Amino acid sequence: MLLLLKFLHPYLMFSNLAAWGLAQNLEGLGLFHSINDLPLQVGNDVIYPWNLSPTHGVNGLSGLMTILLLPIALLNIRAGFYLNRCMGWISLFFWISPGAFSLMGYVPDFTSFGPDVFRFGSDFTGSVSSAAANLLISMVAGWSIIMLFSALWKKNTFKNAYDHIWYVLGLIAALYYVTDSGLPSYKEDLSEAGERTTLIMQHYRNGEQNLEDLCKEPDVINQVPDLCSLAPEMRWSLQDSFASKDILRARIDLPDWVTRVAYDRGIGKQIETFNALACSAHAFRGNCEVVPIEMDLNGVDYKTPGAFLTPAYAQRLLRLHESMQKADSRIKDIEQGHNTRYFVFLMLAFVAGGKLANTSRSMVSHDTVRPRSWLLSGIRFIVHNTLLVIKFLTAALVLPLLQRLVQRVKWHTARIKNRTPKSAAEHAASSGKG
Fold this sequence. Notes:
- By secondary structure, the chain is mainly alpha-helical.
- It has helices at residues 2-28, 33-36, 55-83, 85-103, 128-150, 155-178, 183-214, 218-223, 225-228, 231-239, 246-251, 256-263, 265-278, 311-362, 374-433, and strands at 40-42, 45-47.
- Among the domains are: 2-152, no CATH class; 184-330.
- It has a two-stranded antiparallel sheet with strand order 1-2.
- Strand 1 and strand 2 form a beta hairpin.
- It starts with a helix and ends with a helix.
């Protein structure tokens, strides 16, 4: 068992290297957590908390890749022997040599080629070494499968048909990789909307401070009670608003007070009253300020001081937030597209392996159509040897038993025949005496 594990060690390490690349790009597509998160029993319920260590999921993918290597190796060796005997022995040496060298103590250090970091989220495709490992697996699988599949036709017939698929996929891949995704423009739109949102929030923060100071006055709170009731909610929501990044701000809903200020007509009238009270010559004067001219929405506010922004700016906040959500959604789709390209790349590697198979087949002068199937040969071997075993058992066990049975029947028959004349003679003698 120890020798077997030592023989399989390089294949396990190579599969682990390839699994890191697959895990990183599955994470980019949002699929990695389904295989990485561990179940947790909480009472009668089972939950799946977010596992911040990718080891569990990577080990699962590593085991799957190791299992897949076995049929790929068999197909590759079979395809090599179909091409010619020399190529078959080369393929066999290619697959056996890592395990043989491992038994002799020479094991390549695949861990040094592994990724330095695993990043949760999208827009990171992993290390080059992991991509190269998956590229090699895909190309070898494509070469082997297409080599054996193409053997069902003459080489020129299949090659010409396959070229149609190859060229079309090549053009589609070129279009997919060359077309500009527009990522910089969407990031610029998100940043610009974030700056405008921050500028408006700063003025609403000044308005919240005015509410906190002036709503202590009975005359003010009696005239604008609903507006004053927004001060605690505004103070709580504005504390972390400026520390948030644009992407995080786009993914968090705006506080409820923004919608109320934007569309509640009663609060809109109280804002007018509050600005009139705070920016007049009364005893309770607030901190009134004008908005920057680039922020002005009606052409008046940049020269008219106010203590609290009008509902038009809250409506502007809602539109900016909607714009930020759309930009963030497009950025997320584009970044996930980078991880999708990884799997498109592996698919193209498989197709390229098929193209190489056609080229390899064209280099052979004597081509064979429909090579002898190893599967059918194996079935014939098993059936043939099974019949031989049955024949041997029949000759060694059944025939002697039949011979003994026949001899015993003959013996009983002879005994019965011998007893019949003797019984007749005894009967005649007894009759004479009488």
